[in-house]
Design brief:
With about 400 residues, the protein is of the alpha/beta class. Helix content is about 40%, strand content about 15%. Helix 7 runs parallel beside helix 9, helix 8 runs antiparallel to helix 9 and helix 8 packs across helix 10.
């Protein structure tokens, strides 16, 4: 039987602790959501109460054909004060990861997905002189306690976006807008990844560690020398720095590629980015849909020589037909990259559930599964279509 994706390919969806668990009151995001002058539009509140619903959530995803699942652990629960590790939080995540393993789904466990413990943020966050050491200590503790339940470990989610959104755009905590600091933070996060890989390997030699990078397809908005030069410098800071910086013994075992959109840069814009050209198809986030960008960025990531996973890709829309179309075109781009020789080993859709979308609150709908105000889960048609592809490895199964 013809397949577009190889046997053994990993199929699943992703979540992150702060976006789904609810009640993460001890981190910098909770503070940011509740600060009067913050860019955040809403509080994460109860999330989708995944903290209590994880077992039924995993059962539902398995029923929908998933053989892998990406989730994150909340650092602020595990280490609520410096050097003070919560046995109860570790025991909770042991139950979570045990339940996930029991379904037969392969776990991708992210150690840092945007949120920092309050105490770590108060010391200066990633700009604190001992930030890398403290992060590595947390990673070592988690790998020591839970390593056998973490076959695939993602050290840091989207270091470029932590730097860009938090230190240049002020759109995420700590809400800083500084043209020098965002570049410094990006380099610190790359160091933190290498330190985390070493820590995980020392504590849990069977875990494979990797980094998840967001790789937008960047383009200059105008064809002129200044814009071209600016495009090259932005591409260096957002893409090349991280891909070319994965060197040495602690670079990791795999790379996660996260792709959502084509993005135009403009040195004359106060935000450094331009609005998508007229006529672009836009999502609820205002992002331009450009499926071939995923194929192109998989080729760019291939230069690292590491096995690749698409660890996030998806669309914010209320229109599930639009999600089906997005899925089809982006999976087509992934299949094309594989055909062209790129070593892509899995695809994890963002997101498993409609959830808290950071500064945008609950308005954007990224989920394959909807959640109502009583925390009832409702699988959308796109979730069933995705299940058909996952079960057959065939693109034509989507429709």
């Amino acid at each position: 039987m013809h397949r577009d994706f190889p046997a053994g390919f990993l199929w699943g969806a992703a979540t992150s602790a702060h976006q789904v668990e609810g009640g993460n009151v001890n981190n910098d995001w909770w503070d940011f959501e509740h600060a009067p002058a913050s860019a955040a539009r809403a509080s994460s509140g109860d999330g989708i109460d995944h903290f209590h619903h994880y077992a039924e959530d995993f059962a539902l995803l398995r029923q929908l054909g998933h053989n892998a699942h990406r989730l994150s652990l909340e650092w602020s629960r595990i280490e609520p004060a410096p050097g003070e590790f919560s046995r109860a939080a570790v025991a909770h995540y042991r139950r979570v990861l045990t339940a996930l393993a029991a379904t037969g789904m392969t776990a991708f466990v992210t150690l840092h997905h945007f949120t920092l413990p309050r105490w770590f943020a108060a010391r200066g966050g990633w700009l604190s002189p001992d930030a890398v050491h403290l992060f590595a200590r947390y990673c070592r503790h988690v790998a020591t306690e839970l390593g056998e339940l973490m076959p695939l470990v993602c050290t840091i989610n989207e270091p470029q976006m932590v730097a860009l959104h938090g230190y240049l755009e002020g759109y995420h905590p700590p809400g800083i807008t500084n043209p020098v600091l965002w570049k410094r933070v990006g380099r610190i996060l790359l160091d933190a990844h290498h330190a985390a890989v070493a820590a995980v390997r020392a504590a849990s030699p069977t875990s494979q560690a990797g980094l998840a990078v967001q790789l937008p397809l960047l383009a200059p908005i105008r064809d002129d020398p200044a814009c071209d030069a600016f495009h090259r410098s932005m591409r260096h800071e957002i893409v090349d720095l991280y891909l070319d910086g994965l060197t040495g013994p602690d670079r990791g075992d795999w790379l996660g590629v996260q792709y959502y959109r084509k993005q135009w840069v403009d040195p004359a814009s106060p935000t450094l980015f331009a609005e998508p050209p007229a006529g672009s198809r836009l999502t609820q986030m205002g992002w331009a849909v450009y499926p071939d960008g995923l194929r192109q960025m998989l080729h760019r990531a291939e230069a690292t020589g590491m096995p690749l996973y698409v660890t996030e890709n998806g669309i914010a829309t209320e229109d599930d037909d639009e999600r089906l179309d997005y899925l089809h075109t982006h999976l087509e781009a992934t299949a094309q990259a594989i055909k062209e020789g790129v070593d892509v080993c899995g695809y994890l859709h963002w997101s498993a559930f409609d959830n808290f979308e950071w500064s945008e609150g609950y308005r954007p709908k990224f989920g394959l599964i909807g959640v109502d105000e009583h925390f009832n889960r409702v699988a959308k048609p796109s979730a069933h279509a995705f299940a058909r592809i996952a079960r057959t490895g065939r693109l034509d199964a989507l429709r």
